[in-house]
Amino acid sequence: MKTIAIDAMGGENAPEAIVQAVLQAKAELKNTRFILFGDEEKITNLIGQDKERIAIVATTQVIKDEDEPVKAIRTMKDSSLVVAAQYVKQKKADALLSLGNTGSILACGIFIIGRIKGVARPGFMPTLPVKNSDDGFNMIDVGANAKSRPEYLLDWAKMAAYYAEKIRGIKNPKVALLNNGAESDKGDDLHQQAYELLRKSNLNFIGNIEGNELLDGKADVVATDGFTGNAVLKNIEGTSGVLIHLLKDSLLNNGPITKIGALMIKNALKGLISKFDVDKYGGAVLLGTDAPVVKTHGRSDKRAVYYTIKQIDKILSEKIIDQFRQEFNHKK
Fold first, then answer.
1. What is the SS3 string spanning the chain?
2. How many structural domains are present in the chain?
3. Same structural domain for residues 139 and 273?
4. What tens digit of pLDDT does each residue of 7-32 get?
5. Same-domain check for residues 86 and 208
6. pLDDT grade, residue 331 (50/70/90)?
7. Cβ-contact 101, 69 below 8 angstroms
8. Do residues 115 and 142 share a domain?
9. Where residue 270 sits, what CATH number does that domain have?
10. Mean pLDDT (whole number) for 275-291
């Protein structure tokens, strides 16, 4: 029986969206238990009588977005996030899910759950959409590390490629390095050295990829330093949101003829919006920790949390952490 520890108080829609997602996922995932951490009274009222394979651990504190991450996990010992992480550390649960403070989730992953031996730095990895398929691509790191070394990017690429193969079903995933040009000598020392490490690895490395090519679907995995990755991720999220808003505004606020046209292309628009629906991919995985740690957006609704729970369940079923241990434990 797999067990997922869930910070039920993280995010804007907590605990309602989280409990609703757990109840939906529980009906499908018959071999999975859920431990919810947070306000016991609120959670109990939302669950009702359907308590099979659901446990509640009462906590009295909640880490907020404005709290300083490391200080928060050290001083707020009875917060829903910290207690959930401790359960994973103590092997009372197999994975951690939270919608809360990203920095605190990262700190819990590194300082409480711990790194896999041989992994120097864990990296955050979301799955993002591409224009030519529904498979998307994985990008790592997107903000767990402000500074990077070439060997970090190699480690992240290895873990992300394995994830792409086992969780997303991509055979021999194509791996690229995000850089400011396609040529092998492009970029600073970090990127030139990372290029050589990736080229000499046993990964299916296809070379550099530029920022304007990310959504073309050329690569299944894109390795990048955390500073650049975070900036690119925020740019993709912001641009896609603005474009969808402008499209809706243009179609709905330009007179009756435009509205009629919008109705005629309604199905096509649904397909476009669906292709860039990131909820279906689940959350961002902190790859390199000794148990799965997954962060989904603080604004996530029931649907997004539901898909993230299914993502975590598959990660546990595929035992990818065991594979990472075998890959990296031999390193000094």
1. CEEEEEECCCCCCCCHHHHHHHHHHHHHCCCEEEEEEECHHHHHHHHCCCCCCEEEEECCECCCCCCCHHHHHHHCCCEHHHHHHHHHHCCCCCEEEECCCHHHHHHHHHHHHCECCCCCCCEEECEECCCCCCCCEEEECCCCCCCCCHHHHHHHHHHHHHHHHHCCCCCCCEEEEECCCCCCCCCCHHHHHHHHHHHHCCCEEEEEECHHHHHHCCCCEEECCHHHHHHHHHHHHHHHHHHHHHHHHHHHCCCHHHHHHHHHCHHHHHHHHHHCCHHHHCCEEEECECCCEEECCCCCCHHHHHHHHHHHHHHHHHCHHHHHHHHHCCCC
2. 2
3. yes
4. 999 999 999 999 999 999 999 999 99
5. no
6. low
7. yes
8. no
9. 3.40.718.10
10. 89
Residue 138's domain spans which residues?
Answer: 125-279
- Is residue 7 domain-shared with residue 40, that is, in the same domain? yes
| 41 lies in the same domain as 145 | no
pLDDT, tens digit, 9 for 90 and up, residues 56-114: 999 999 999 999 999 999 999 999 999 999 999 999 999 999 999 999 999 999 999 99
Same domain for 142 and 44: no
Please name the residue that has the structure tokens 């989904």: 296
- Angle of helix 320-328 relative to helix 302-318, nearest 10 degrees, comes to 50
Do 181 and 265 lie in one domain? The reply is: yes
Based on the fold, state whether residues 6 and 113 are members of the same structural domain: yes
